[in-house]
Amino acid sequence: MRVLRSFRRRCGKCEVVVAAGTEALRKASNGWEFASRVQRELGITIRVLAGEEEGRLARLGGSADWPGATTLEIGGGSLQLSDGGRARSLPVGAVTLTERCLPSDPPTAAELDAARRTVQALLKPVRVRAATRVVALGGTASTIGTMRTRGSIGRAHGLSIALRDLEEFLA
Questions:
Q1: What is the pLDDT of residues 86-127, one digit of tens each?
Q2: How far is CA 85 from CA 71, 89, 137, 141, in A?
Q3: Quick check: helix, strand or coil at residue 73?
Q4: 75 Cβ partners below 8 Å, 6+ apart?
Q5: What is the secondary structure of 99-136 as a DSSP string?
Q6: Rounded CA separation 41/137 (Å)
Q7: CB distance 45 to 17 below 8 Å
Q8: In degrees rounded to 5, what are phi and psi of residue 148?
Q9: Pairing between strand 17-21 and 134-137?
Q10: pTM for the full model?
Q11: Residue 46 phi/psi, 5° resolution?
């Protein structure tokens, strides 16, 4: 609530404020109660997005600068993937995967193998058209971009990283 209160203050005198709820609210047992409380206390309407809609919106954002690219949005709770056709949402975000497969810090080799197998199993039935460019969005992409630019989050937008160079970010 503290973050939403701060956000609401920043909106100033806006008459209508709408927020998007993603995987965390989709899965939370009290997600609708939380959204109702936010509406009641802060006047912010939280619209809980279906996974496919989240993927479609990520596609709109990602393809604005790079038309025709496949979009990949990795958040804390889920991954959205779209090649311009149907958007897909998979329950394998950075936090979800960490909680499910990586209890140790640093992760053990067996835990990393379990995480890889989990992701591979979720992605196996997914078919997307071949793309020459994949636009990554969300917190995970921002973190990798910031690491790649040595801490400059401002230079992360539009950063191009070859697939082979992503391996340095793999555990």
A1: 788 898 888 999 999 999 999 999 999 999 999 999 988 888
A2: 11, 13, 18, 22
A3: strand
A4: 22, 23, 93, 94, 138, 139, 140
A5: HHH--SSSPPHHHHHHHHHHHHHHHTT------S-EEE
A6: 31
A7: yes
A8: -65, -35
A9: unpaired
A10: 0.77
A11: -100, 120
